[in-house]
Design goal:
With 1529 residues, the chain is mainly beta. It contains eleven helices and 112 strands. The protein has a 43-stranded mixed beta sheet that branches.
């Protein structure tokens, strides 16, 4: 599109090129510039349609030639009749002038149409008048005359240059030819009209718009008939129609050349006719209600997309399609190049429709006064008792119902010949449902509501609420039946018609989680009311009718008894089982298919009203953990108010500017140097100001007055003031950032926002509301209109708050609720509407309530929603202090550095902070700290955020403190816009999925968004709460910094955790089996010199250090609830102290050296909405991971019916047993374990799987508490697997068992599948890894081979205590025992034994004696080696008796004890590496509970047979007696 400034520029450049004399060129330039400057700024006016001769509820409008943008605003409380706001915007906003009264632009023609009438095609005055410059540019005669004069001048001044003169004349002719097109298409003014429909006018009878060239947007338009024609101009380049939630009662005909978009069209009645056309573009229509009727779609491009479970599902590839959805007479016809339909209840989306505007109460105070007192609306009292009103769900519609019969047939079926026939029909007839079944069909039918019907109508069923079900029924007079002969089941007698003497039985079932694929299984038996469903929960059953049904409706409808819901059910369903008198018979000898007809009326579910009160209130928000709250902030008098300072100059005074006062015309405004400019509310005009620049030496100061400013950008090189830290503003200040994202010029540090440059500073301080968030003190029920908080607050009437969900999944089923305060008294808050969802508050946990409203509001304009391109605030300056500000529609999706609030590369900035602010409906993050250290982010509330919310960007940010913030409803950005990330692709794998940067996903970690996202752990988190997201707190691993700091030499993932204290997180992690509310995992890396990133969500370890020493990630006083896993820590060191986990599938998963100390792990709370998913409170890992549980209470664990797998059922403590390669050493220990309300047998769950991890499962119960003190209180217990297997080994079938039966005092716990044995002082868990050539080595764990047996000394034959050896190395047992190894292949010629874990205790009794059978003639070389220290090994000398070996205290001998033709090679194994440094002690210990180090390859014994006279064997092995076992030591 050609722009006027471009025309002027090119005009001047051209004639300069033609080498006009300098004087003439200068004069020409001056003339043209003067003409351009004479163009007037746009104006606006308002027309009350009451002054026009239009019928009251009808609107007809046409614009014959002008480019027009029409916006329809329905339900506007600011007007009492139809009103038009009119403005004009022309080329580059150098525009046509609108008269002070726009009524002269608008006339009514003879047909009653409102007609736009302005200047004519050539610029003559049509009521509004055009500026002289517009007339100059648009008049062809003037243009041609100007060209001719210039050509003549050229000929006179340079007569020899005829070529240039001829070229100039040709150009003049071209201008003459092109001018009509330019004036009609591009250079005309654009008229913008805003139709405001008052709230009192609920519906228009007729809405008729005809605009040949323009755009129309409507929101919530309601009309009997709608006609919108934007297709009158074939040259229109921007013809588009967008309709949000229109309601039409009879017909709708809409057309736009480029785009037609109708979101959630509603049909007021059946039989609506809709026609939509777009001959050059796309038609996109959706309806959240089921579309009852047919559609006819024609798309020549072949791109038709239709998605709905009740209609055809088609994605591309068709040029036309005709189909019928639910029965009805409405018709939808579409003609377009492309069509996209969603008809019926759409899949839930994670990006909701734009919320309503934040309410800005009538701003009290004087807008022309620099200082205004705080005015608070007086509130009525709030009672602690009230009436929870009832609700009625009307179910007499086709769409809620699924019907099937006793044979499980749907609406159609196939006969034996493969022919399709109709089983039944169900149609709406007025307010009735008409059901017709086929002849000789079934006599038993089930009518079932879809899962979301009651949820949508009354938000499901609420606990302790009372309900009744009502319906009525009649039958057609000509119904005929075949009735089964009770004496002969194969005989069916004909009954002439359905007389009242025949009975109909109707049964009611209300249930949760019904299986839609198997409905016929729900109720069985003709006489007994029973039902079958393993997955669903019965709420209520009753035979509501068993009697006569006549040809008229019953005088008294059928009504169920009053029943009470025993819990909250989100998706309950109603099932009506109808037993008809018999099968439908034919109505004539011709076997006509009419069947029998039944009519149902008045089907409703009613929730009865009831009295409510808050009841007992929670006085302590947690049972175990300390929940910190921010300190009270005392009120104080305002001091150091910038707006009351001296030397201020008013914005509205011309002397401030040395000329005219800036107007809102989109131009750039620069404050005078060395000036303090005060702006008050009355200083600003309506309209959009351009970019406001504050020079380094100047300040822009807002007064404490009600102010509304619409601006494109504010660039701060100096100082921007809205109050000060000691002078908070009381007035309402609303700043809107207004400009199309695509067309906006780039300014310093971005566009559409506030940018504070490195020389600038910013202070924004709205009224202090304290506390900014609290928790419920009592549960809030569906239908309640009030809540009670745990804390005192100073919130106000008219403000908005958000209440968090207390269910697991808040992406697919978000239950966070935004409410407006009607009254507030102390901690009691009453709302203007009732709650739609249940919000739990019990002793275990409580929903959070956060304040959204603030006195200062920064917001993106309404157009932000389309491109998800809102406003932003970036500070790269000296200091940024922000408090009491709301950011709404802020953030620019996938735009780096364009976040709602952003501390950008500020270095160490201790004076900067953002406190008690709010962010709502952000398109990209909430608060970002980037390249900035030691800032404070405190007491903020953020809600409905896309991408990570509180965000540390590059991995170099340290020393920042996040305190007492609340975040909820955190939504993802996906690799392909609109396509959810499939985390299930990772299955149960720990590796997760990997995603890279795409065009729709700039930062791939945003697929897994968190409330608090941390790229460098060396920051503090105190008293924060997180609700929703992939995780509440996410600590991602960065091997090196990214972005602007990619070259900084540090390893962010190794940095220690700052102070993590008093935080909570919930409703997260459900997306992936390894997800968690607090997640330490995943890795983000950057590719080379590009900004492309790769993110892996899975297991990545971090080695945390501080000053070169090991550092533990310490979490203190942490509470998690309703999580996949409460905490998932995949680092090397973690310590969790004072911890509560409620209703998590796994309370915590920790790696490395970790401990959980002083913890409460609760499987079931009292929350009736809890998802009773199987929960295993803690799992001991299978290898290397050292874990201590100390002072842990397990509570409320009950058996899961029908499930015995400990990994799928409810247990307190389970094993990990899937692997043969990865086997447990002595890595798990516990003490002070308590069980409360835990069913016997569910304390320990060991799943036997026939793997090394299963056979070697063990842990040390240091005080016996985990095993109920089987050997006396306080006595330690060794717990070991009781795997009992029949195996082919050592050339025979043996029972392999009792390896962990360490003495005859042990007790077998078959319910746990373990042995419990008293632990002696010489017994510690030990692990060795034995490797032999051709026998034992690491192999694929999925297919291990049996290698032999390891047995205990002294137990042979049927008493043998043994464990299987596979060809994966590693055997775990206890010290002080003798272990004898027998391999299937015989005695190995070479043998390596790595002493992976043989602890050294003070009494030096911890060793393992290993025996291997060899031929008597065998000679050996036995050495020790260390891979950790060269030259540390030695050669062992031979002794010939066990006693000599056992008396060896230097551990430098081995024994070969011959007992005939064979003998025993015996080694007294220790880890000699510990001896090198004077028996160095190595262990991990917490609260006296100890786990010894695993030293892997630090020490090994190497055995080599140097000779063996007369020995037989094969390959690397000798033949020996494999059954032999040496006597006990």
């Amino acid at each position: 599109q050609t722009k006027s400034p471009q025309i002027l520029t090119r005009f001047l450049k051209y004639f300069s090129f033609m080498r006009f004399p300098t004087t003439l060129t200068t004069l020409l330039a001056v003339a043209l510039v003067a003409a351009a400057m004479s163009m007037v700024s746009p104006a606006s006016a308002q027309v009350d349609m009451g002054s026009q001769t239009l019928s009251g509820n009808s609107f007809q409008f046409r614009s014959t030639q002008w480019q027009t943008e029409l916006e329809v605003v329905t339900g506007d409380s600011g007007v009492s009749s139809l009103t038009l706001d009119v403005s004009a915007a022309g080329v580059s906003d150098l525009t046509h002038e609108v008269p002070s009264s726009a009524s002269s632009l608008l006339t009514v023609d003879g047909d009653g149409n409102l007609v736009l009438s302005a200047m004519n095609e050539y610029g003559s005055d049509g009521g509004g008048g055009a500026s002289p410059a517009m007339r100059l540019l648009f008049a062809p005669r003037l243009l041609v005359a100007l060209c001719a004069c210039l050509a003549l001048v050229r000929v006179v001044t340079s007569p020899r240059d005829g070529r240039n003169s001829a070229f100039l004349l040709v150009a003049c002719l071209a201008v003459f030819v092109a001018q009509p097109l330019l004036s009609s298409a591009q250079l005309r003014p654009v008229y913008r009209l805003r139709l405001r429909v008052p709230a009192s006018m609920s519906s228009l009878s007729n809405f008729d718009v005809d605009i040949p060239n323009g755009r129309v947007t409507t929101t919530n338009l309601v009309a009997d008939s709608i006609s919108i024609d934007l297709c009158g101009n074939s040259n229109a380049f921007d013809s588009a129609l967008i309709m949000y939630s229109p309601t039409v009662h009879t017909s709708m005909s809409i057309c736009a050349r480029n785009y037609v978009g109708v979101q959630n069209v509603r049909l007021g009645t059946d039989g609506v006719q809709i026609t939509a056309e777009s001959d050059a573009g796309l038609v996109e229509i959706s309806s959240e209600e089921t579309f009852a009727g047919s559609y006819d779609v024609n798309a020549p491009s072949g791109q038709v997309t239709i998605r709905n479970s009740m209609c055809t599902d088609l994605t591309g590839g068709a040029s036309s399609l005709v189909d019928t959805c639910a029965p009805g007479t409405s018709v939808l016809t579409i003609n377009a190049q492309q069509a996209y339909l969603t008809l019926g209840p759409a899949a839930l989306t994670m990006v909701p429709v734009a919320p309503e505007e934040p309410p800005v109460p009538d701003a009290p105070g004087n807008p022309c006064s620099a200082e205004n007192d705080d005015v608070v609306i007086e509130s009525a009292s709030v009672s602690d008792s009230w009436e929870n009103g009832g609700a009625i769900a009307a179910l007499t519609k086709v769409s809620p119902w699924f019907v099937t019969n006793e044979w499980g047939q749907g609406q159609t079926a196939e006969n034996d010949k493969g022919e399709t026939y109709t089983v039944y029909t169900l149609k709406e007839q007025g307010t009735d449902l008409v059901f017709r079944d086929r002849p000789w069909g079934a006599d038993l039918f089930y009518f079932v509501t879809n899962p979301d019907v009651l949820k949508g109508a009354m938000n499901g069923l609420a606990k302790d609420n009372e309900y009744t079900f009502t319906m009525n029924i009649k039958q057609a007079a000509d119904n005929r039946f075949r009735v089964q002969d009770p004496n002969n089941p194969d005989t069916w007698d004909q009954v002439d018609q359905g007389q009242p003497g025949t009975n109909v039985r109707i049964d009611l079932l209300v249930a949760d989680n019904l299986d839609l694929e198997n409905k016929w299984r729900w109720l069985t038996g003709a006489n007994e009311l029973t039902w079958e469903c393993s997955t669903c929960k019965s709420i209520y059953t009753e035979t509501i009718y068993n009697g006569q049904v006549g040809t008229d409706f019953m005088s008294t409808p059928i009504k169920s008894k009053i029943f009470t819901s025993n819990a909250n059910y989100e998706n309950p369903q109603v099932l009506i089982r109808v037993q008809f008198p018999g099968r439908a018979d034919t109505h004539s000898e011709k076997d006509d298919p009419q069947g029998n007809t039944w009519t149902l009326r008045g089907i409703t579910m009613e929730r009865r009203g009831r009295a409510r009160s808050f009841g007992s209130l929670i006085t302590k928000s947690a049972e175990l953990v300390d929940v910190p709250v921010p300190a009270d902030i005392p009120s104080s008098a305002k001091t150091n108010c910038p707006h009351l300072g001296s030397g201020l100059k008013r914005w509205s005074e011309s002397s401030t500017w040395g000329g005219s006062v800036p107007k809102p015309n989109g131009s750039r405004i620069t404050l005078p140097e060395n000036t303090k400019v005060l702006v008050l509310g009355c200083d600003l005009d309506a309209g959009t100001y351009g970019t406001i620049v504050i020079p380094e030496s100047s300040e822009l100061i807002f007064g404490d007055s009600p102010t509304v400013l619409t601006v494109q950008n504010i660039v701060v090189h100096g100082h921007l003031w809205m109050g000060s830290p000691t002078c908070r503003l009381n007035s309402q200040i609303l700043i809107t950032f207004d400009h199309d994202a695509e067309n906006m010029p780039n300014v310093d540090f971005g566009r559409k926002g506030i940018a504070v440059t490195y020389t600038g500073s910013i202070d924004m301080h709205g009224k202090l509301f304290h506390r900014t968030w609290s928790r419920l003190a009592a549960s809030a029920q569906i239908g309640d209109d009030r809540v009670v908080l745990q804390d005192d607050v100073n919130w106000e009437v008219g403000q908005q708050v958000v209440i968090s969900t207390t269910i697991w999944n808040d992406w697919d089923t978000p239950q966070n609720e935004l409410m407006t305060i009607k009254a507030i008294q102390g901690r009691r808050v009453q709302f203007t509407e009732t709650l739609k969802y249940y919000h739990y508050a019990g002793q275990e946990y409580q929903a959070e309530v956060g304040l959204i409203s603030r006195r200062i509001v920064l917001q993106g304009d309404e157009r932000s929603e389309d491109a998800r391109f809102g406003g932003h605030l970036l500070s790269n300056g000296k200091v940024a202090r922000i408090s009491g500000v709301l950011g709404y529609r802020m953030g620019q999706r996938n735009q780096l550095a364009r976040y709602p609030f952003h501390f950008h590369l500020m270095g160490v900035s201790r004076e900067s902070y953002i406190t008690d602010c709010a962010v709502w409906h952000s398109y990209y993050r909430a608060v970002t700290v980037h390249g900035t250290n030691e800032t404070l982010v405190a007491r903020n509330v953020v809600y409905d955020i896309t991408g990570h919310a509180f965000y540390l960007e590059d991995g170099v940010e340290e020393g920042n403190s996040f305190e007492y913030n609340l975040g909820m409803y955190i939504k993802p950005i996906t690799a392909k816009d609109g396509v959810p990330t499939d985390f299930s692709a990772a299955g149960g794998s720990q590796s997760g999925i990997t995603v890279a940067t795409t065009g729709d996903l700039l930062i791939p970690a945003d697929i897994a968004p968190s409330t608090f996202y941390n790229t460098n752990a060396n920051n503090s988190y105190i008293g924060n709460a997180a609700s929703g997201g992939f995780a509440g707190f996410s600590f991602v691993n960065l091997p090196k910094p990214i972005g602007d700091h990619a070259t900084v030499n540090t390893v962010p993932m190794n940095r220690p955790l700052g102070n993590f204290y008093g935080n909570s997180a919930h409703s997260a992690g459900w997306q992936w089996s390894r997800g968690a509310c607090i997640y330490f995992g995943g890795m983000l890396t950057q590719s080379g010199g590009s900004h492309d990133l790769s993110y892996n969500v899975g297991r990545v370890a971090r080695n945390t250090e501080a000053n070169g020493e090991k550092a533990w990630m310490v979490l203190k006083d942490t509470r998690v609830f309703i999580c996949q896993r409460g905490v998932n820590h995949w680092g090397d060191r973690a310590r969790i102290i004072n911890f509560e986990a409620h209703e998590c599938t796994r309370g915590a998963t920790t790696f490395g050296e970790s401990s959980v100390e002083h913890a409460l792990l609760v499987t079931e709370s009292s929350n009736p909405l809890s998802v009773r998913h199987p929960s295993q409170s803690f799992q001991f890992y299978d290898t290397w991971v050292k874990t201590i549980l100390y002072d842990v209470t397990y509570r409320n664990i009950h058996k899961d019916p029908g499930e015995n797998d400990p990994h799928k059922a409810n247990y307190a403590l389970i094993s990990m047993t899937h692997s043969d390669r990865f086997k447990p050493q002595g890595i798990s220990a516990s003490a002070k374990i308590t069980y409360e309300n835990v069913e016997s047998g569910l304390e320990i769950g060991h799943l036997q799987r026939g793997t090394g991890a299963s056979r070697q499962y063990n842990f040390v119960d240091w005080d016996g508490s985990a095993t109920h003190s089987p050997f006396g209180s306080g006595n330690p217990v060794i717990v070991g697997a009781n795997d009992n297997e029949q195996l082919e080994v050592l050339g025979t079938t043996l029972t392999v068992r009792e390896w962990w039966k360490l003495s005859n005092n042990c007790k077998e716990r078959t319910d746990w599948n373990v042995w419990t044995c008293p632990k002696s002082t010489k017994q510690e868990i030990a692990n060795i890894e034995i490797m032999t050539p051709g026998g034992i080595f690491y192999v694929n764990e999925e297919s291990p081979k049996t290698a032999g047996l390891m047995s205990k000394f002294g137990f042979s034959g049927s008493n043998r205590r043994s464990i299987l050896i596979t060809n994966n190395p590693g055997i775990t047992g206890v010290t002080g025992d003798g272990w004898v190894m027998a391999l299937n292949k015989g005695a190995p010629k070479e043998l390596k034994i790595a002493c992976t874990q043989i602890p050294r205790t003070p009494d030096a009794t911890t060793y393992v004696v290993l025996a291997v059978r060899y031929p008597a003639s065998a000679q050996f070389e036995v050495t020790t080696t260390s891979e950790w220290r060269s030259n540390a090994g030695y050669t062992l000398s031979r002794v010939s008796s066990v006693s000599e070996l056992m008396s060896d205290t230097e551990y430098n001998k081995y024994a070969f004890v011959v007992d005939g033709q064979e003998g025993w090679l015996m080694l007294k194994l220790i880890n000699g590496y510990l001896q090198l440094d004077g028996w160095e002690t190595r262990w991990f210990e917490r609260e006296g509970v100890r786990i010894y180090d695993i030293l892997s390859t630090a020490w090994a014994y190497n055995v080599k047979v140097t000779s063996c006279s007369g020995c037989s064997g094969s390959g690397d092995f000798y033949n020996v007696d494999l059954e032999a076992v040496p006597p006990a030591l």
